[in-house]
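Person: Show me a sequence?

Helper:
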Amino acid sequence: MASFSASRAAVVLGDVIAIDFGATAPTVANWNQISSSTLSISDLQRLSDGALTGVGVTVTISGTNGDYVKNAAPSVGLGSTDVSIYDDHLAANDLSGPDFITVTYSGLDDSLSYTLTGGMARSGNTSAFEQTYTVDGIDYDYTGTTGVDAYAAYAGLSSSGGVLSFTVSDFSDTDLASISQMSLTVVPEPSSAALLGLAGFVLFRRRRA
C-alpha cells in the first residue's frame, strides 16, 4: 500500500470504494453509507475486504434534503442488487430550485486513474426524470423514465491535489437532484473516453453551451 498524504492514498489498482446514499443501512458488507444526517466519511472502506483506504468523502446538498425510498433496482450492478442499497437515495428537492448535490473525494493518488459508476432510477415514475451529472467539468444530461436505469460510468478521471468531485443537479423543470449509489474504481491508466455509457439503460444528452 502507498503511504497516505494529501495526494497519496492507500488505494491501489483494482480497488473499489462503494457508497450507498440513503437512510437504510446496507445489509451487505463493506458498503460505505452517507445519509442526510451524516454527510461525510473521513476514512472510506474498500469494497473487497472492508480495509480502510485513507480516502475521505464529503457531500454538500442544496435546498430541502432527505432520504427517499422510491428507487428502482439497477439491471446493471455495482456489486450487489441488495434492496438496502438501491431502494433509497439522497435527494435535494426544493421546488423553488435549482437543486445540487456535490460529492467530493479527498486523499486520492493523483498518479492513478479513476472510474465513477452509479446513478439512480425512480420507481413508478411515469414522467421524464431529468438531471445533470457534472464530471471533470463536463455536463451530461440524462432522462430516466419508468423501467429505465439512469446509471452510467464515467471513466478516465484524475484527481488534482488528491481531490475529485462531481455534481448532480436538476435541469428542465424537474426540481429534483438525487443519487442512490456510486462506486469509485482505481483503474490502470487514464482512458481517452470521458464517458462510458451503459447502452440500453440510460439516455445521455450532452449539454450545449
The two ends are 42 Å apart (CA to CA). Residues 16-206 form a domain with the Jelly Rolls fold (CATH 2.60.120). Residues 99 and 169 are 6 Å apart (CA to CA).
